[in-house]
Write a structure and sequence with these properties.
The complex is a heterodimer of chains A (about 290) and B (about 250). With about 290 residues, chain A is mainly alpha-helical. In chain A, about 75% of the residues lie in helices and about 0% in strands. Chain A has a single domain, classed as Orthogonal Bundle (MetI-like fold). Chain A has a two-stranded antiparallel sheet with strand order 1-2. In chain B, a hairpin with a 2-residue loop joins strand 1 and strand 2. In chain B, helix 3 crosses helix 4, helix 3 packs parallel to helix 6 and helix 4 packs across helix 6. Classes of the chains: A mainly alpha (about 290), B alpha/beta (about 250). Chains A and B meet through helix 7 and helix 8 of A and helix 2, helix 3 and helix 6 of B. The structure holds adenosine-5'-triphosphate (ATP) and magnesium ion (MG). Magnesium ion binds next to helix 1 of chain B.
Chain lengths: ~290, ~250
């Protein structure tokens, strides 16, 4: 009993701690000014989180958007088509990929993805896609939302694949056999019998991946450029919330309210991730019981 | 004998373990054939070889032929979904699909595009529910989830679902073993009513059920067919010692 309450207690303690420490800024500025202010100049007393919120949002959306379609196909393949042998290999490989430290993904992003965006994707987009919204190429470097999103997509893929695969595995084989027995193909069986059963679980798995992406710090920080501006394109640099905290906490603490502002950013981050996780866990629990 | 299915030199392995050895049998058209034998002798395996369900298990190896109307269902040009449409299966435990009662019955017809419009689907669903003896009980709740039915009703629903794709052959793997006595009687009664239109193959563990249903009997032991023939002959004058022992309840 005490053990099960411990995490709850810890989360409450962290939340209350953050709330207390960010209280100075919360009482000095209105929530609207903080959340929607687009200028971040702490030395002039301007603390607008909007650039960071938009940056976090875009990096997460791009990461999840790139990860989900291939991950779904891979999970469906592993769960419904692959031989037991393939599965027995895929499982440890996925676990291994999930266990690689984020900083390694960051280095890989720095060495491979940033140059790839700079020398290939950006010129391509400039030539063919620039008329689309969010596709304009304004900055010449590869440090961008897109680079961050690609690195994130690769990072969260093992998690999303594992979770979705597990959810497919909860569908009893008897249901598949019932459908196959009247002459349905495998695909018809997946589409009409299996997928409707697992859809809420798939969404929960994606939300879990999104929450992982949302909070990811190091790997994204290394490739996303870290410019406190409201990004207008996938090729712009951005500055996600976790990177803001990691880069600045401990420095420049002489500026008034700076410390409180960063802890307020942490509070926002914690709040969003808690909501994501609780929602996903509630849905998944229904499946895994 | 007018045989609908002929099995020739069928051997089945699960990995290294041989489950069926050199099976050669004939299954008569539009009669009920009952497969009997002690647990683990290969009854389910033989049944699954008739609708190509064995290949759904990893590591099965199949050799030999299964001819339906003279055509080998394992030939490479044969479409497996077509085989399974012709050869329906009633499972041991009822497995309603996670849909409404109506959709369970229309599912197969819909997959195979067997009707033209909604009206036709509706009429067909009613027809097959009547055929399975379930219509009166469910006509007011067609759009309730199929899982809300009792186990016995679910099994009749599965029968209707199978019949709806117009199979020629119905396989049943101990189709009443999960049911209460009344529901079992329902299913048995339906199988007897339907036998003049369908070739039926039923696995059963209970000798009394075998005697009530069978016109043709196949007796198996340790992966081999020991004896097969018309029910009267096998039950009254078994040729093999093993069959005699089984019929006397010695194992
Ligand atoms: N998927 C499988 N993998 C490995 N061996 C199997 C598998 N299915 C069945 N067997 C083996 O094949 C043999 C025949 O099994 P089968 O299920 O056909 O027997 P059965 O006559 O239907 O038995 P029961 O009366 O208990 O249902 C058994 O020895 C069984 O252990
Ligand atoms: Mg069996």
């Amino acid at each position: 009993m005490v053990i099960t309450l411990l995490p709850l207690f810890l989360i409450s303690a962290v939340t209350i701690g953050l709330l207390l420490r960010s209280w100075p800024i919360l009482s000095a500025y209105s929530l609207k000014e903080l959340l929607f202010g687009s200028i971040w100049k702490p030395s002039q007393g301007l603390f607008g989180f909007w650039p960071f919120i938009v940056g976090t949002f875009w990096v997460t959306v791009v990461g999840v958007g790139l990860a989900v379609p291939p991950c779904l196909l891979v999970s469906i393949y592993l769960a419904e088509y692959a031989h037991a042998f393939t599965r027995s290999i895929a499982k440890p490989v996925l676990d291994l990929l999930a266990a690689i430290p984020p900083v390694v993904y960051g280095v890989w992003g720095l060495l491979a993805i940033v140059p790839f965006v700079e020398t290939f994707l950006a010129p391509f987009s400039k030539r063919w896609l620039a008329f689309l919204p969010f596709m304009a190429v304004n900055s010449p470097t590869g440090f961008s939302i897109l680079a961050g999103g690609i690195v994130l997509a690769v990072m969260i893929a093992p998690l999303v694949i594992s979770v979705v695969f597990e959810i497919f595995a909860t569908v009893p084989n008897d249901l598949r056999f019932a459908s196959l027995a009247i002459g349905a193909t495998r695909w018809e069986t997946i589409r009409r019998v299996v997928l409707p059963q697992v859809l809420p679980g798939i969404i929960a798995g994606i939300v879990l991946g999104a929450s992982r992406a949302f909070g990811e710090t190091i790997a994204v920080l290394m490739v996303v450029g870290n410019v406190p501006q409201v990004p207008g394109s996938l090729f712009d640099a951005a500055y996600p919330l976790p990177a803001l905290i990691a880069n600045n906490y401990g420095d420049m603490m002489s500026i008034p309210l700076y410390d409180a502002a960063l802890l307020c950013a942490a509070l926002i981050l914690l709040g969003v991730i808690l909501i994501f996780n609780i929602a996903a866990t509630l849905v998944l629990k229904r499946f895994m019981k | 004998m007018n045989s609908h299915i002929q099995v020739r030199n069928l051997n089945v392995f699960y990995g290294k373990q041989q489950a069926l050895k050199e099976i050669n049998i004939e299954i008569p058209r539009q009669q009920i054939t009952v497969i009997m034998g002690p647990s683990g002798c290969g009854k389910t395996t033989l049944l699954k070889s008739l609708n190509r369900f064995l290949e759904l298990t990893d590591g099965t190896q199949i050799s030999g032929q299964v001819l339906v109307d003279g055509q080998d269902i394992y030939a490479s040009a044969v479409d497996v979904t077509e085989v399974r449409k012709r050869v329906g299966l009633l499972a041991q435990r009822p497995t309603p699909l996670p849909m409404s009662i109506y959709e369970n019955v229309s599912y197969g017809m819909y997959i195979h595009q067997m009707r033209k419009d909604k009206r036709e689907y509706k009429d067909a669903v009613r027809h097959y529910l009547e055929l399975a003896g379930l219509w009166e009980e469910v006509k007011k709740r067609m759009h309730d989830p199929a899982t809300s039915l009792s186990i016995g009703q679910q099994q009749r629903l599965c029968l209707a679902r199978g019949l709806a794709v117009e199979p020629e052959i119905i396989l049943g793997d101990e189709p009443t073993s999960a049911l209460d006595p009344i529901s079992s009687q329902h299913i048995e009664k339906k199988l007897l009513e339907l036998k003049s239109q369908y070739t039926t193959v039923v696995v059963t563990h209970t000798l009394r059920q075998a005697k009530r249903l069978a016109e043709h009997v196949i007796f198996m032991y340790l992966g081999e067919v020991v004896e097969a023939g018309p029910a009267q002959e096998v039950f009254n004058h078994p040729q093999q010692e093993r069959t005699r022992q089984y019929l006397e309840g010695l194992f």
